[in-house]
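Field log, afternoon session.

UNIT: design team B
ACTIVITY: writing a sequence onto a fixed backbone
BACKBONE:
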């Protein structure tokens, strides 16, 4: 029988997913931080107030943004030679983002299934992180209820998007607006 320390060592050295609990990003320039927060709040308001209009142009906005982000990541990765480290994946992610953006742009008329599936998987990943944080807080006897509720919401939305991605995207634009506005408000407060 292996000791608890041996088992812990095996788990820590196993090729397992790591928690990516991001710490809040603090802008070095307050003006840029305020502008970014304001843009998020305005984008959120547009999604909330103009849901149908945003939904109609969503494939162009999302596909274009993903392609541009992908090109930017690839350029930065090639410039810094980031791909020479197995610990990072900026160049690889950039390639994937570019092609996902291109697929969304190409299939813009019927891109709901692709967009819904991507959002669903991302929602499950975010929900998994929130669940991990809640479980950690519970194990440390710290407040965990709000984190657990957040995890349940993220996971539920992710599963809903994956079970019916085509029809769920239109409704999800409104929820995206809420999230953008809340994140923008949180950045503005910081």
């Amino acid at each position: 029988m292996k000791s608890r320390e041996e088992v812990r060592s095996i788990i820590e050295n196993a090729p397992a997913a790591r928690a990516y609990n991001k710490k809040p990003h603090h802008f070095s320039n307050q003006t840029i931080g305020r502008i970014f927060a304001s843009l998020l709040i305005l984008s959120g308001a547009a999604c909330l107030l103009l849901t149908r209009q945003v939904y109609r142009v969503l494939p162009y906005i999302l596909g274009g943004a993903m392609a541009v982000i992908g090109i930017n990541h690839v350029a930065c990765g090639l410039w810094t030679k980031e791909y020479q480290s197995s610990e990072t994946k900026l160049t690889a992610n950039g390639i994937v983002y570019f092609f996902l953006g291109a697929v969304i742009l190409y299939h813009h008329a019927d891109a709901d299934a692709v967009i819904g599936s991507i959002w669903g998987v991302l929602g499950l990943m975010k929900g998994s992180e929130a669940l991990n944080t809640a479980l950690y807080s519970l194990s440390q006897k710290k407040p965990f209820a709000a984190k657990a509720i957040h995890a349940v919401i993220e996971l539920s939305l992710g599963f809903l998007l994956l079970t019916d991605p085509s029809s769920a995207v239109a409704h999800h634009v409104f929820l995206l607006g809420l999230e953008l506005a809340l994140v923008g408000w949180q950045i503005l407060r910081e």
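LOG NOTE: DSSP finds seven helices and no strands in the chain.
NEXT ACTIVITY: expression trials, pending approval
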